[in-house]
Amino acid sequence: MIPDSNIHVPRRQFLKQMATVTGAITLPQIISSSVLGKDEKTAPSNKITLGVIGVGGRGNVLMKNYLKFDDVTVLAVCDPRGDRLKKAKGDVDLEYNNKDCTMYGDYRELLARKDIDAVVIATQDHWHALIATAAAQAGKDMYCEKPLGVSVQECQIIRDTIRKHKRIFQTGTHSRSFQNCWQACELVRNGYIGKVHTVQVAAQGPHFKPSYKGSLDPQPVPEGFDWDMWLGPAPKKPYNPGRVAYPDFYLIWDYCVGFICNWGVHCLDIALWGCPELAGGTFDLECKATYRNEGFSDNVLGWNSTFTYASGLKMIFTDEDQQKFGIRFIGDKGWIHTSWGGGGIWAEPESLLKIKIKPEEQKLQLSRNHGDNFIQSVRSRRDPVANVEAGHRASCFGMIADISARLQRKLKWDPNKEQFIGDDEANARLIRPMREPWKL
Q: How many CB atoms are closer than 10 A to CB 224?
């Protein structure tokens, strides 16, 4: 959905650039396959083989970037929409000057291939949990777009399955691979703004409007489009182009929690990266929101939430119409504000921006390229910069804020048990039913 200029650098060019960088930057080691106990096909001298599941929009961007990597080969593509599938195969075959890329309409057939090391998952949000858990069970590493799913339970199951099967999982929260976000979080975690008492987070949301303006009546399914597979675990609904248009499918509850989660995850992730105390203690949560009602759209439009901790720490999470877009850490010695991605960094006092993080101060992994960080992690078997726990936490914060808004009351969250305290109705909303026969 969101352009990621950071991932466009081919690995060969990326490593050449990194060789000239000095200071606190360290690259993960590349460990031999014999040390890892890995099959020879993933040895450093050979290419990592990829399958791409979901090749429209964001998936197409990710696939084309990996086509430029010298040590990666895309072997297969998967999508329920035949036109997108054929286009993706054509792009792969053109890049490699052959006809070897295989098309699949069902992700399970792609995952059954023993010659595929890893997959890119870039489907609609409601599919992430089923595909990610199946990929882990099939022994695949994965780059999975954010958020992890459409319910807290889905996020938990993905996390637990990834760890059980010892797979590498990179979340598509690529702000962790931008210098400004890393710098801001390192300054905060090293105490340069003193004790943090407030974190302000603002994400995009209300300005996204449905693009489809036609009839809402059922329409014939286009030739080559497996509509039932596209729906998957979502409720059975008749086909209409308004359900699959961009950004419309992000605005429909059946397929997405809403931008409080889908966009919010980017900014919440950096807030949690810079201030891990946000995820470490019980807090009160109150959120007020408005909801969409144009066309098929029905999930959250705008929101204003407050997370309050016993220590006095507070996080205010809203849409960008109510606060300055990005993440602002406020301490008793100053503040630092960083925008999503490579958007910029500001501080008061401004002298904070001249501070260079010393090697002994570095607390966070530094990645210059989100896509390559995943490939390096597949080789080294070390967690990438945006691991599954990070994706889980950031996704859940947006989801529980939405639950508070829907119930129109204050809630108390226990991060250890990952449930609301003393509220069965709220806890029931941590689970999203799936349409038969799909289940986790």
A: 13
